Amino acid sequence: SQKIEQNSEALNIQEGKTATLTCNYTNYSPAYLQWYRQDPGRGPVFLLLIRENEKEKRKERLKVTFDTTLKQSLFHITASQPADSATYLCALAPYSSASKIIFGSGTRLSIRP
Amino acid sequence: NAGVTQTPKFRVLKTGQSMTLLCAQDMNHEYMYWYRQDPGMGLRLIHYSVGEGTTAKGEVPDGYNVSRLKKQNFLLGLESAAPSQTSVYFCASSLASGSSYEQYFGPGTRLTVT
For residues B92 and B4, is the Cβ–Cβ distance under 8 A? Predict the structure, then answer.
């Protein structure tokens, strides 16, 4: 069955360092991979999308890589700040069916001052 | 632009009671979704709609019904609530097929069934 896995442990990073989150998947051929941020008590907020034919995407301090051979995406936050503390979700989406989008359970990131 | 709104924010039900969760979006999106989120699990799709008047089952549809009578609204109903339906429910919307399916989420409804 389709499976998507994110770091199950919370990640604690010193402010200013680069945080790297991992998303691995099996039995799925996504057209897109998305990353969302979720703060406690709130809904997820879209951050970045990367297509299957793209290796890397950047947006300000965020960088996402997508390796369809390894079936893995890495999400980097450079120069991390305490305000970056949140849970980050990855999601896989196919070309043709909105109902086939699947979400990971998320990785909780804490940035300490 | 309010985006996606959900009512109510919190609700406590007794087993066997019924309720309806309302989702509204003002972005003119075609697609709307209902998810549930449980600790340690990803968002799981309950039902979705690809346009006004259409609905379809997602991954975990049992015990829920939905309706999309107007494009901007998507209702989720629980006819006979069970403790297993205790969860946080999120509504989301996205542009029509052919887009990248970026989803916009509401703030969630925390439901407890006792």
Answer: yes
Q: What is the percent of chain B with per-residue pLDDT over 90, rounded to a whole number?
A: 87
Q: Give the count of alpha carbons within 13 A of B72, CB side only.
A: 10
* A99 CB within 8 Å of a chain B CB: yes
Mean pLDDT of successive 10-residue stretches along chain A, which has 113 residues: 83 96 90 93 94 93 94 96 97 77 93 95
Helices (runs of H) and strands (runs of E) counted in chain A: 0, 11
Strand A107-112 with A11-14, pairing: parallel
B41 and A105: CB-CB below 8 Å? yes
A9 burial via Cβ count (<10 Å: 0-12, 13-18, 19+): exposed
> B17: closest CA among B82, B87, B111?
B82
**Hey, of A2, A23, A103, which one would you mutate to test binding to chain B, going by the most B CBs within 10 A of its CB?**
A103
Please spell the DSSP secondary structure of B29-50, one letter per residue: -SEEEEEEE-TTS--EEEEEEE
List, in sequence order, every residue forming a beta bridge with A35; answer none if it has no partner. A48, A90
Distance CA A107, CA A9 (A): 7
Tokens standing for residue B110: 């925390």
